[in-house]
Amino acid sequence: MTSFLEFEKPVAELEGKMEELRHMSDIGDIKIADELSKLQGRIDKSLTQIYNKLSPWQTVMVARHPERPHCVDYISALIDEFTPLAGDRLFAEDAAIMGGIGRFRGRSVVVIGQEKGSDTETRVKHNFGMARPEGYRKAQRLMALAEQFSLPIITLVDTPGAYPGIGAEERGQAEAIARSIEVCLNLHVPMVSVVIGEGGSGGAIAIAAANRVLMMEHSVYSVISPEGCASILWRSADHSEEAADALKMTSKDLLKLGVIDAIIPEPLGAAHRDRDDTIKRVGDGIDEALKEIEGLDGPALRAQRRERFIALGNDVLSS
Q: How far apart are CA 298 and CA 203, in angstroms?
């Protein structure tokens, strides 16, 4: 059963009526079947109207939906013969960042992604997708492995931000993120990143300084969460909605600003309503992006990636 967001109440009511009809009589009844068809049409129309005019804050809610496909779902469906690799060889294993080697549509690749978890147990295990320094150092190790064996890199971004705990700061959180960005920019292999949910702050860009950066239609990507921004500017998280508007964090905004390269459309009603179709669309997007850059040699890939990130914001500053 789909969990409904606050602004999806009209859809929830219609789907409730559908469930009642299904239990009232035999589904083979022509009248009941006809009524169900009409209700489904109303649901589709309502979803279209709602999702065509989502506010930035509502988009944040969709990006955080608990039933949205996570990193582990994409890896399971898209990566064959996946072999997970653990640990940073310096301190510990960090389950907030998953990584390993596998095959994507015939190509040998290295995959790195942030995993939030889907229930209480897994969310605690993966620390809600908030990586510590050892997670970013594991990512650096996997990138170096990809470089050594000339393997393309695919990264899946979904984090509210890097973990801000005392222990993480003591172990060099800022240095680990900065070093991870540096490693990304110096790679001589193709790299494609997809923001599949939340792309929060340096915790996201640490594994997203890629040749091609894609975003799911209803994902978000920003320097800080709306709540964090509101707490700094207004001293209150009550202004999170205003902050979301100001941050320009939606896929449409970021495509206009040149921060991302393409938007991957989501099924009607967002990714959580049709997980299989969503995952296929992401796979197609990654495949297309890799084809665009696979013909470039190492120095060209490195130069293109560095120039891309140096140029970020130039259009805004010059306007």
A: 26
Q: What's the pLDDT at 16?
A: 76
Q: Which residues of 47-80 are buried (b: 16+ CB within 10 A; e: fewer)?
A: beebbeebebbbbbbbbbbeebbbbbbbbebbbe
pLDDT at site 155: 98
Determine the pLDDT at residue 8.
84
Is the distance from CB of 226 to CB of 244 less than 8 angstroms?
Answer: yes
- Considering only CA atoms, which of 282, 232, 271, 296 is closest in space to residue 74? 282
Residue type, 116: K
Q: What is the DSSP letter of 177?
A: H
User: Can you give the pTM of this predicted structure?
Assistant: 0.91
> Which residue range forms the structural domain that includes residue 11?
6-53
Residues 300 and 168 in one domain: yes
Residues 6+ positions from 261 with CB-CB distance below 8 Å: 212, 213, 214, 255, 289
Say whether 111 sits in a helix, a strand or coil: strand
Rounded to whole angstroms, how far apart are CA atoms 120 and 87? Answer: 23
d(Cα 161, Cα 132) in Å, to the nearest integer? Answer: 10
Amino acid at 87: G
Distance CA 19, CA 30 (A): 16
Q: Which token pair is 268?
A: 């009607």
**Encoded amino acid at 183, one letter:** V
Kindly compute the dihedral angle of the four CA atoms of residues 185, 313, 113, 266, in this order, to the nearest 10 degrees. Answer: -140
DSSP 8-state secondary structure symbol assigned to residue 226 = H
What b/e string do you get for 237-273 counting C-beta neighbours within 10 Å, with b at 16 or more? eebbebbbeebbbbbebbeeeebbbebbebbebbbbb
Q: Are residues 35 and 168 in the same domain?
A: no
pLDDT > 90 in the chain, percent: 74
Q: Give the distance from CA 236 to its chain's centroid.
A: 27
Q: b/e map of 175-212 (b: 16 or more CB within 10 Å)?
A: ebbebbbebbbebebbbbbbbbbbbbbbbbbbbbbbbb
Residue 1 covered by a domain: no
- The CATH number of residue 157's host domain is 3.90.226.10
